[in-house]
Q: What sequence folds into this?
């Protein structure tokens, strides 16, 4: 990876200088360049992000500076951004078919949405987030990184259904219980589309507890998918739910959707989430075999992995 400038050159971008009087950063980052993955995970990061590794590093820099200052990432997460956030989210990209339309619900700091956009430029991604300070960060990050495959929409999942519904894949880095999460996310997917939720050790237990409720809202039987097998230990745990049918949801409408003011990256694109057959048939050309096996884990055989949440993401997020 090429990386211009000296180590710790955050001061090259105004407003991103750690250690400022109003900065909550507890660490002296003056001798650390978080754009570079740590040596112990460098090979894995290169495998996940390929020629876009430098771009991933630029996003890591934004998380370590503006993301911390704005309270989107816990300051203690800075030393482990690559391992716990970038790579943990990036390995799930193997589950996405080429050219799929993706809606990331409750995108927060862009995890996993922006990470997926960096790892897989073929994906068309909409970041849905209700909080203004988060959508401001997301919009600035999208512009800073030049991600033309990303749109930022401000609103809750139930508010933006008319704008972003019909996606091939809906993602969430889940903090809510699986039944609630499915209730927010499945309506945004087309029939035959999927919810891919990054979960942790609770995944298997939640499937057993909420399977019937998920079926009532049109979802198929949840399955655990392990991503990054052979690359990271433990692998990332993703719960996959296929939307089998439409279910009417009383009171839900396209009401107060609010597209983030700075998000002009949708030019040249149709409405997100109407990619036709892009989502048909599992992990397609777009890197399904690039890394790991992503094998399925049965109901009792899945190896649960930590979901890699940051200290700064403690409030439950609802799209």
A:
């Amino acid at each position: 990876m090429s990386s211009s400038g000296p180590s710790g050159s955050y001061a090259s971008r105004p407003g991103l200088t750690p250690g400022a009087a109003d900065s909550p950063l507890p660490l002296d980052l003056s001798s650390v360049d978080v754009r570079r993955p740590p040596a112990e995970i460098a090979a894995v990061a290169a495998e996940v992000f390929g020629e876009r590794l430098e771009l991933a590093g630029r996003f890591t820099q934004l998380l370590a500076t503006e993301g911390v200052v704005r309270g989107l990432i816990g300051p203690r997460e800075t030393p482990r951004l690559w391992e716990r956030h970038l790579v943990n989210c990036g390995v799930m990209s193997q589950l996405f078919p080429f050219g799929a339309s993706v809606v990331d619900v409750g995108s927060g700091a862009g995890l996993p949405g922006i990470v997926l956009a960096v790892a897989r430029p073929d994906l068309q991604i909409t970041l849905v987030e209700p909080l203004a300070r988060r959508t401001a960060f997301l919009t600035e990050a999208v512009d800073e990184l030049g991600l033309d495959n990303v749109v930022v929409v401000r609103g809750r999942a139930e508010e933006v259904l008319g704008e972003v519904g019909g996606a091939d894949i809906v993602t969430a880095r889940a903090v809510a219980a699986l039944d609630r999460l499915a209730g927010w996310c499945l309506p945004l997917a087309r029939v035959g589309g999927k919810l891919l939720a990054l979960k942790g050790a609770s995944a298997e237990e939640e499937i057993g507890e909420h399977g019937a409720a998920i079926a009532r809202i049109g979802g198929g039987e949840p399955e655990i998918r392990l991503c990054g097998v052979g690359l990271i230990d433990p692998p990332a745990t993703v719960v996959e739910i296929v939307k089998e049918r439409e279910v009417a949801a009383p009171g839900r409408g396209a009401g107060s959707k609010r597209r983030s003011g700075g998000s002009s990256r949708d030019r040249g694109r149709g409405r997100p989430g109407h990619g036709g057959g892009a989502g048909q048939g599992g992990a397609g050309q777009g890197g399904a075999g690039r890394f790991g096996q992503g094998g399925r884990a049965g109901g009792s055989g899945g190896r649960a992995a930590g979901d890699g949440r940051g200290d700064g993401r403690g409030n439950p997020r609802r799209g």
